Amino acid sequence: MIHFLKFIFHTSILLLIILSLFPGSLIGFFLYGDFGLQPDLVPGNPFGTTINHFFAYFYVSFLGFCAYLNARKDNFRKLLLILLFLSAVLEILQSIIPNRSFQAGDLIFNILGVLVAYFIIKIYLFMIKR
Question: How far apart are CA 88 and CA 71, in angstroms?
């Protein structure tokens, strides 16, 4: 089961990289037939499509932390740092990709998604030790 979870995690990371670095919205193309449209996962929310970044990074991070739950403590922290680094680098790289742009709000929500997943796992680990 863990091997499958790791496979899904690594595949999700690859998909996240492709979606982040593609010049246009692949999801918008598949849903609306337009590379310029971003889907709004939570219509009417005050953050617009920025909330999508939170969900994407929360999903990938939570999956990764679950897959590597039994890793050594220092490797678990390395995974946290790698995910934070990836979230920043992918957002910064969007500033040089045609039809994409760097947005500070997206970066904040990327990082929030990683941190929320991390703290949920840390709370879970704390609870099962008690």
Answer: 24
pLDDT at position 71 = 78
Angle at 41 between CA 38 and CA 45, to 5 degrees: 100
Residue that is written with structure tokens 């996240």 in the block: 16
For 68-104, the DSSP string reads: TTTS-HHHHHHHHHHHHHHHHHHHHHGGGSTT----H
Element (H, E) at 122: helix 104-129
Band of residue 38 on the pLDDT scale cut at 50, 70, 90: confident
Mean pLDDT rounded to a whole number for the chain: 92
Closest CA to 83 of 51, 114, 119, 121: 114
pLDDT digits (tens, 9 = 90+) for 65-82: 999 988 788 888 999 999
d(CA 63, CA 10): 9
Burial 86-99 (b: 16+ CB within 10 A, else e): bbeebbeebeeeee
Q: In percent, how much of the chain has pLDDT > 70?
A: 100
